[in-house]
């Protein structure tokens, strides 16, 4: 059973030196499939090219959709990164 949560992206470029690569690294720590959705686009969070094209920016509404055995942890980690907690 997958889980989904909507978040509003914070200023990830202020908190992270290379936010796109770091976001992919976070996603790749988990076995679960992680998809980011916004404006009818769905991107695999483990794909650096996908994240570059997706380009999460400040104020953007993003749905994090996770499916797998560690989905709870994956969801929390992705949310924490995107909202810069």
UniProtKB/TrEMBL annotation:
Compartment(s) where it occurs, according to its Swiss-Prot or TrEMBL record: Cytoplasm
HPr domain: residues covered: 1-85
One Pfam assignment: PTS-HPr
Taxonomy, superkingdom: Bacteria
UniProt entry keywords in alphabetical sequence: Cytoplasm, Phosphotransferase system
Protein name: HPr family phosphocarrier protein
Top-level taxonomy: Bacteria, Bacillati, Bacillota, Clostridia, Lachnospirales
